[in-house]
């Protein structure tokens, strides 16, 4: 009969000390978006609240999508119009790097809402569609990842994680139990 060598399982100290990066205990709510598909988005113009371009996916009106300009950080947007492969997206948070004519807009009456000025661009971006949003609680964080309390996550799942005070990040579930999951972020947290 097999008898395990107990010395192989001996630990020289607490598990935390053997990890590559220290963990910080947190209790923070998070929105989790399991990724369904990724495709290229050729952005042709932007405004402080919108993105227009050609999508390699067929999108529906009011569909929630995520756009990344660096494959690490993503912004959430809603499909406002489509015309074949051309799409118009309204972003959830203003694109601060796009400047408009704010002084003119401040002088206009509340009843007059002109179209925002657009900047013509030629930028490649990543467009991500996701399953319905899930709610979770971040329990700890390290330089490369986090442990999230949430049901239904499976090992290997690509997902976007959004929490207050942090950008929406793309990660992969490294391990999962019934109610916990470890998420790894390639570019770090």
UniProtKB/TrEMBL annotation:
This is PilZ domain-containing protein. Residues 7-19 have a biased composition (Basic and acidic residues). Residues 1-20 are annotated as: Disordered. It comes from Sphingobium chungbukense. It comes from the Bacteria.
